[in-house]
Specification:
The protein is mainly beta and about 475 residues long. It contains three helices and 21 strands.
């Protein structure tokens, strides 16, 4: 009885600590959002090094604008731009992994902080550096790689413009850097999770008004939770090229090749060395009226002594009523992602999402983009000028019965070859985003996962999952 009382007391104390953090953060960030000169900033980019404040050189700068553009020499050729982010997220999970891990109620706090400096040496050379801290407090089963990395260098690179004429340029970038391509299906910076991804290597990019082509060779570190303790891979394990072609008033086209090497990859087929090549294409159009995103990819290579042959196809179509009250949009998405056809034969047909966007199937998916068929209708509404709502329903089936379930990162989770059930379950989601200003935003969402026949077949006492999160973020 005493143990139960102490347990409840600890839980109450933990919740109070979390709510105190949130209350303090709301007060501080709300005060910061009131500064009028902040409103003059440009829209912040997903990757902060893509922001360009050179236009401030010809203006009279005060306060915040001096932070974004500060001339260090009389001729203005050497200048510095600085910025950062503070993000606080409360997470409340009931029945993670549908009750298999028997954690019940699991609530915790995530924090992320970053600062960066962008030093320009004229118009063709610059040095960009960014420090990032990702912290986790209160998760019963400890931190995941996506939760905690106490202090790390997120970006540290030098880039030079080798050629520039009119709207055409060739750039080379060397060092630690973030990557994000297309819809985030295969290479994403991972903005949703607390600890964003980074790579170390070289990238060569050609840019014009209608064409962007990048070739890269990278090393991916092993993420550890401490201070400057991430383990470098010491070998190139990610390489490829990504091309984006913009056709005015028509469809946009992406073409890509991605190669990976991993010493140890785990699938239901087994654990082995993996070399995999991906060829893919994407056709897309966003904006008012008819919108769509069509993507397909094929993978080949080797898994141990066996061969890889895997594929994915996605159709996402919708309509944005841009000139209607509330500006509603309606979409229907359908994904097919291959799984292994025959367990134990040494060959592998399981698709590898490589470095996927964590929230590709909702803001807190429990199922990753591997061995999956889904039907995903969703809709958005602009409830207020600064408040957007999105509602989703995602129905999930296994693509093949000889393969199991995988996590959002693509890592193996639950074996499935012993079950003949295909239907995994359905997720029902509602998400609200309030953009108080360009600097300050609040995102709140709730998800309910109703288990299907497959989950009920492989877990002895399955439970429906409920997820809630609330995130406040401030950028400068």
């Amino acid at each position: 009885m005493k143990k139960n009382i102490h347990s409840k007391s600890y839980l109450v104390q933990q919740q109070q600590t979390i709510f105190n953090y949130i209350r303090q953060a709301v007060v501080v960030l709300s005060i910061l959002s009131l500064f009028p000169h902040f409103s003059k900033a440009q829209t912040y980019k997903l990757m902060r090094f893509e922001e360009d404040y050179s236009a401030l050189a010809d203006s009279t700068r005060h306060g915040y604008q001096k932070l974004k553009y500060s001339s260090l020499t009389a001729d203005g050729k050497l200048w510095l731009s600085m910025g950062g982010e503070a993000r606080l997220e409360y997470v409340d999970f009931n029945n993670e992994d549908w009750g298999r891990v028997k954690l019940g109620h699991n609530n915790f706090l995530l924090q992320r902080y970053s600062v960066h400096a962008d030093l320009h040496f004229g118009t063709r050379l610059r040095l960009f550096t960014q420090l990032r801290s990702a912290l986790q407090h209160g998760r019963k089963n400890g931190s995941r790689q996506i939760d905690e990395d106490q202090l790390n260098v997120q970006n540290l690179f030098i880039d030079g413009t080798l050629f520039k004429q009119n709207n055409k340029s060739v750039l080379i970038r060397l060092g630690r850097q973030e990557l994000d391509y297309g819809s985030g299906r295969l290479i994403s910076v991972g903005e949703g999770p607390n600890a964003r991804r980074y790579f170390t290597g070289a990238k060569l990019a050609y840019n014009s008004s209608k064409v962007n082509i990048e070739a890269f060779a990278m090393m991916a570190d092993t993420i550890r939770p401490g201070i400057f303790d991430n383990k470098p891979s010491k070998q190139v394990n990610l390489w490829g090229a990504y091309g984006k072609f913009i056709i005015p008033q028509q469809a946009n086209l992406d073409l890509y090749y991605i190669g990976i090497y991993r010493d140890r990859s785990a699938f239901e087929e087994g654990i082995a060395q993996e070399t995999r090549h991906t060829l893919g294409a994407r056709v897309w159009k966003y904006g008012g009226g008819f919108i769509y995103n069509l993507e397909g990819a094929y993978q080949f290579g080797s898994f141990g002594q066996g061969k890889i042959s895997a594929w994915t196809a996605s159709v996402d179509i919708g309509y944005l009523f841009e000139n209607t009250v509330l500006k509603p949009s309606i979409n229907l998405r359908n994904d097919y992602i291959s799984g292994d056809k025959k367990a134990g034969d040494g060959n592998l047909q399981t698709f590898n999402p490589i470095y996927p966007k964590g929230g590709y199937f909702g803001f807190s998916p429990q199922i990753g983009p591997v061995n999956l068929i889904d039907i995903h209708p969703y809709a958005t509404l602009d409830l207020l000028p600064k408040l957007k709502m999105q509602v989703d329903v995602v129905f999930n089936w296994r693509h093949t019965l000889q393969d199991g379930l995988y996590r959002p990162s693509g890592s193996f989770n639950l074996p499935g070859s012993a079950s003949r059930k295909r239907y995994i379950g359905a997720a029902y989601l509602a998400n609200f985003t309030y953009a108080a200003s360009k600097q300050l935003s609040l995102v709140t969402g709730i998800q309910y996962f109703k288990t299907g026949a497959f989950i009920e077949d492989i877990i002895s006492t399955p439970k429906n999952g409920i997820f809630f999160n609330s995130r406040i973020a401030f950028k400068f």
